[in-house]
């Protein structure tokens, strides 16, 4: 059995910086990955989807050129070129990551499937056929998650797509059915509508993005409807069958049973952890009912010396959270610190157009906690820069503690919402009172000066 100081199983967004930091500190590292370095984010998540979102926005703006006084011809989309552009960017990211890791003398890359065979001991079946047994003083699990397949009658009899499959389409679907109204479903729905598909979203809940405030969900529904997307809420999918060259989806809805005929089906109904093939029980590693690895606030599992980071441990499934997980482990394991996940901010952005961004408490959450709050809100149609860009859809809403005048959270739907939200996050990190942004001098005309306006509107 080959022994290492650190074994990293999987290559999500925490894995690469962890490996490099441990190697730089003189630790011998085994880095185990089944296929593609970089995890979901680089290969099938953030990098490719946001690349395609950018292509879809160009198509959208080209069709709107007349609104800006610009004349263009007919707009068409070449999905082969879109796909190649996406693949090139993903390839560049992945190749760069592999080159950096391979250049480190203290890191050994093992491409294959790993599973536990004992406490901090693993068997790795390499893709080349060899089987290696390895052990680590520290083991970090970063195997991520995949699309959760819903128990939908007939799904195993039809061709359906998850987010990774959507990235490989070489044609624009005639009619895309999207099962699920979360951020993955909404981003792909709008993207392919702009590429030219007819799109229908089937959502089980009473609103899109169920964790958001009702006003945010309603506003984003209006945006998507304006793009020509059909949205069916409170609709439970019951059965799917092949119908000619396409599919037919049957749903229960508020108006009774409905049937939707489509050319392609995207399943975006949630995620499942990649733990089922790891034999975690052999190492005494506990999981919850959903199969996610249980960790404490220092990311330690139930097994001594074993940690879990990123999506595999449940909780917010965002790249920046996985990256923060790596900082926690490095602080504690290399610097003797006591970093935890306690009180960690969880900012995020849904990359529809316009973006929906949030940090901290929503208005609904703050009221549910019984807090005494003030809510500052303006429409983007009161933001000079947004009007000049003809991007006045959406709103800015900031939740403030009425007693301390400190920010509790923000929800922003609008152009560059993620950047505006980040400004609020920095103010929250610094403990600034709301009056500080009200009285700040921001350059004109910028989107940032909208923070003057919204704070004055309290």
Automatic annotation (TrEMBL):
Residues 4-324 form the FAD/NAD(P)-binding domain. Pfam families: Pyr_redox_2, Pyr_redox_dim. Belongs to the class-I pyridine nucleotide-disulfide oxidoreductase family. It comes from Nannocystis punicea. Residues 346-453 form the Pyridine nucleotide-disulphide oxidoreductase dimerisation domain. InterPro entries: FAD/NAD-bd_sf, FAD/NAD-binding_dom, FAD/NAD-linked_Rdtase_dimer_sf, Pyr_nuc-diS_OxRdtase, Pyr_nucl-diS_OxRdtase_dimer. Keywords: FAD, Flavoprotein. This is Mercuric reductase. Its cofactor is FAD.
């Amino acid at each position: 059995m080959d022994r290492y100081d650190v074994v990293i199983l999987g290559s999500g967004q925490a894995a690469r910086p962890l490996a490099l930091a441990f190697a730089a500190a003189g630790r011998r590292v085994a880095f185990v990955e089944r296929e593609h370095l970089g995890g979901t984010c680089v290969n099938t998540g953030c990098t490719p989807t946001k690349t395609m979102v950018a292509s879809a926005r160009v198509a959208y703006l080209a069709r709107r050129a007349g609104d800006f006084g610009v004349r263009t011809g007919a707009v068409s989309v070449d999905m082969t070129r879109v796909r190649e552009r996406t693949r090139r960017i993903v390839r560049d990211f992945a190749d760069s990551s592999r080159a950096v890791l391979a250049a480190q003398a203290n890191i050994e890359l093992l491409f294959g499937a790993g599973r536990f065979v004992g406490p901090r001991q693993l068997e790795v079946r390499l893709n080349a056929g060899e089987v290696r047994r390895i052990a680590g003083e520290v083991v970090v699990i970063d195997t991520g998650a995949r699309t959760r397949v819903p128990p939908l009658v007939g799904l195993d009899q039809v061709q359906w797509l998850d987010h990774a499959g959507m990235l490989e389409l070489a044609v624009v679907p005639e009619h895309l059915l999207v099962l699920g109204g979360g951020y993955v479903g909404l981003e792909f729905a709008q993207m392919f509508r702009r590429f030219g598909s007819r799109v229908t979203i089937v959502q089980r809940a009473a609103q899109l993005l169920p964790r958001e405030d009702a006003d945010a969900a309603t506003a984003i529904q209006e945006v998507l409807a304006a793009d020509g997307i059909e949205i069916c809420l409170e609709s439970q999918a019951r059965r799917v069958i092949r119908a000619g060259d396409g599919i037919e989806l049957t749903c229960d809805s508020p108006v009774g049973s409905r049937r939707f005929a489509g050319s392609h089906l995207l399943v975006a109904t949630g995620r499942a952890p990649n733990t089922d093939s790891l034999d975690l029980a052999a190492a005494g590693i506990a999981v919850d009912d959903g199969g996610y690895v249980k960790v404490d606030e220092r990311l330690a599992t139930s097994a001594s010396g074993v940690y879990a980071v990123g999506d595999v441990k449940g909780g917010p499934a965002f790249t920046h959270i996985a990256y923060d997980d790596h900082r926690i482990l490095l602080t504690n394991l290399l610097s003797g610190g006591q970093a935890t996940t306690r009180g960690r901010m969880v900012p995020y952005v849904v990359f529809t157009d316009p973006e929906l961004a949030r940090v901290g408490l929503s208005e609904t959450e703050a009221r549910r906690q019984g807090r005494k709050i003030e809510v500052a809100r303006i429409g983007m149609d009161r933001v000079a820069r947004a009007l000049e860009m003809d991007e006045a859809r959406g709103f800015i809403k900031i939740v403030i503690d009425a007693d301390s005048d400190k920010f509790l959270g923000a929800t922003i739907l609008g152009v560059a919402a993620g950047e505006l939200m980040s400004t609020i996050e920095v103010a929250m990190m610094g403990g600034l009172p709301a009056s500080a942004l009200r009285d700040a001098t921001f350059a004109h005309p910028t989107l940032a000066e909208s923070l003057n306006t919204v704070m004055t509107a309290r």
